[in-house]
Amino acid sequence: MNIAIVGAGIAGVATAYELAADGHAVTVFEQRNATAEEASFAPGGLLAPAGLDPWALPGAWGNAGWWGRQAPLRLGRAVTLNELSWLRRWRRNARAAQRAATAPAAWAELLQWARYSQACLLERTRQLDLAFEHGTGALVLLRSARDAAAGARLLRALRESGHTVHEVDADAARRIEPGLAPDLPLAAAWHLPDGMTGNCRQFALLLRQAAQRHGAQFEFGASIAQVQAHPPGVQVQGEAAVRRFDAVVLCTGAAAATLLRPLGLRLPLVALQGCTISAPLREALHGPQGVVSDAASGTSIARLGQRVRIAGGAELGCGAAAHPQTLHTLWRVLSECFPGAISHSAGVQVWRGARPMLPDGPPAVGASGVPGLWLNLGHGASGWALACGSARALADRIAGRTPALPMQALEPARLA
């Protein structure tokens, strides 16, 4: 088949690789001038497991990350009615999950897909000999008994979906992560030995090269004005004619909602902004060895080669720059957990990026309902964790094969 992919972030590049490896003729259209220039540029280093971010699964951490003490949601003056509507739906899903006697089925499915996606990523890394910054081991800090109680159902869901999770005390946590501040209040922790940290943009750049070796074509600086159905095609901004394809796959961010609306598809997708700070590692023993997630603040601190990256925050309608309080929280949490770990002298990168997200948590992966149009988008806080698995699943669906796992929780039709 001749297939167009719109978007060259981590989801689009992974999809391009899988489809090209299956023998399809693939053309990727990207409005930026390079791969992974938007949401995939500098996201948090937490690669696995998915679900630790307070926004990944509505209600998974109770109220943590919502009105949390350390990393509350920031609403700016530019917040739109569409964003407020999305927020109401997200809160409704969170409350429903908290009231339920057991964890929602969508949690288990998303966590299972995340494990599958991690396996796909490791297989591609081995098969293609991809040398990108990554490490193993994840530690979830529970500063209080309240944090432990809030995450109890997520802990069960992680275990039921096949993740190995050890509950450890503060002393054991400090043996796993010796750089943790000795005066940091710590009631307990979860240790996930199979957890991973990784550099998303590095991986995307390397995987793009692998896709090109399979014949995939990338057209940069190509904004899509419209997606057309019957037959499928895309119109590039500035071109009069529609380019025809056998299928089109949307791997775009929040702009996908605008492209889908003329086709009669309304997707409740918004760009929830998050922030990261990346800084040079000053002393290896003072920094994280893998990735550390702080339940109290909804942040993650990851080791990426010779750098440390802390990620967190959730902003809607806050303008182009990161909210000062969000950045203050990130700096404070880093200094509380790993004092002296980074060098402030040079090379500090502050980044704010969109996390295109749907109000129930999982992405939309599969048939759109319009013949020839497929979706692989809305991964939100789990984009890095789910990219390889969702790309493989979509390639299987397009080829008429049965994916490795049930896809009910990911089907776009659930959002109708």
Describe the fold and architecture.
With 416 residues, this protein is an alpha/beta fold. It folds into two domains: 162 residues, 3-Layer(bba) Sandwich (FAD/NAD(P)-binding domain), CATH 3.50.50.60; 241 residues, D-Amino Acid Oxidase, Chain A, domain 2, CATH 3.30.9. The protein has ten helices and 19 strands. Strands 3, 4, 5, 6, 7, 13, 14, 15, 16 and 17 form a ten-stranded mixed sheet that branches. The radius of gyration is 20 Å and the shape is globular.
What is the CATH architecture term of the largest domain? 2-Layer Sandwich
- Dominant shape: globular
Q: Which sheet architecture does the biggest sheet show? A: 10 strands, mixed
Q: What is the percent of helical residues?
A: 25-40%
Percentage of residues in DSSP E strands: 25-35%
- The first-level CATH class of the largest domain is given as Alpha Beta
The total domain count is: 2
Low-confidence parts? 64-71
Oligomer state equals single chain
Determine Rg (CA atoms, Å): 20 Å
Q: How many strand elements?
A: 19
- What structural class do you assign from the helix and strand content? alpha/beta
And the CATH topology of the largest domain?
D-Amino Acid Oxidase, Chain A, domain 2
Average pLDDT level: 92
Key descriptive features of the protein:
single chain, alpha/beta, FAD/NAD(P)-binding domain, 2 domains, six-stranded mixed sheet, 19 strands
Task: Describe how the helices and strands are arranged.
Elements: E1 2-6, H1 10-21, E2 25-30, E3 46-48, E4 74-75, H2 81-99, H3 105-128, E5 134-142, H4 145-150, H5 152-160, E6 166-168, H6 170-176, E7 188-198, H7 200-213, E8 217-220, E9 224-228, E10 233-236, E11 243-244, E12 247-250, H8 256-260, E13 270-280, E14 291-294, E15 299-304, E16 307-316, H9 324-337, E17 349-357, E18 364-367, E19 373-377, H10 383-398
Parallel strand pairs: 1-2, 1-12, 2-8, 4-16, 5-14, 12-19
Antiparallel strand pairs: 3-7, 5-7, 6-7, 9-10, 10-11, 13-16, 13-17, 14-15, 15-16, 18-19
Helix pairs in contact: 1-7, 1-10, 3-10
